[in-house]
Design a protein that fits this description.
About 35% of the residues lie in helices and about 35% in strands. With about 170 residues, it is an alpha+beta fold. It has a domain at about 1-115: Gcn5-related N-acetyltransferase (GNAT) (Aminopeptidase, 3-Layer(aba) Sandwich), CATH 3.40.630.
């Protein structure tokens, strides 16, 4: 379901971003910074560098073909915390792929990376992402007002958290 991003994913990811740009813009702030295949290539290069440095882990969601991203956008090694972020192509939404991918990433985070906790920060208006966190047993632990500037307005976040059950 998920695997580490590779340079060979560049073309597919770029095409997904282009095809889904308007759909993704509702929740993702980085679309104006990824406007060419070269930008996508640079993102992959930086993601792999950060992975080697244990700062993040960017994975692709695969359902017959690459259809999105499910990642630890950042990893705080001092407190052993991972912060999940994801997106999926519109035509693959509603199939449980994000939930399954997050479950796979959580397992990897707790069992292999030995994380103490994992958080998912969700826009307050993003009901579908709230449902993903809740299905996976994450607990709402707080809110952040004006957490992100999204093109022309601020977005508040709900913070969901799960502790490693082995700790």
């Amino acid at each position: 379901m998920i695997r580490l991003i590779q340079h060979t994913d560049c073309e597919r990811i770029w095409k997904l971003i282009e095809k889904n740009r308007d759909y993704l813009r509702k929740w993702l702030p980085w679309l104006d910074w990824n406007t060419s295949k070269e930008d996508t290539k640079e993102f992959i290069t930086n993601s792999l560098k950060d992975y080697v440095e244990k700062k993040s882990m960017v994975n692709v969601i695969v359902a017959e073909e690459v259809c999105g991203i499910c990642s630890f956008n950042s990893i705080n090694n001092s407190i052993k915390a991972g912060y999940i972020g994801y997106w999926i192509a519109e035509n693959h939404q509603g199939k449980g792929l994000v939930t399954e991918s997050c479950r796979d990433l959580e397992t990897l985070g707790f069992e292999q990376l030995k994380l103490n906790k994992i958080e998912i920060h969700v826009a307050q208006e993003n009901i579908q992402s709230q449902k993903v966190a809740e299905k996976l047993g994450y607990i709402e632990t707080g809110k952040v007002i004006d957490a992100e500037w999204l093109y022309d307005h601020y977005v508040d976040y709900i913070i969901y958290c799960k502790r490693n059950p082995a700790n």
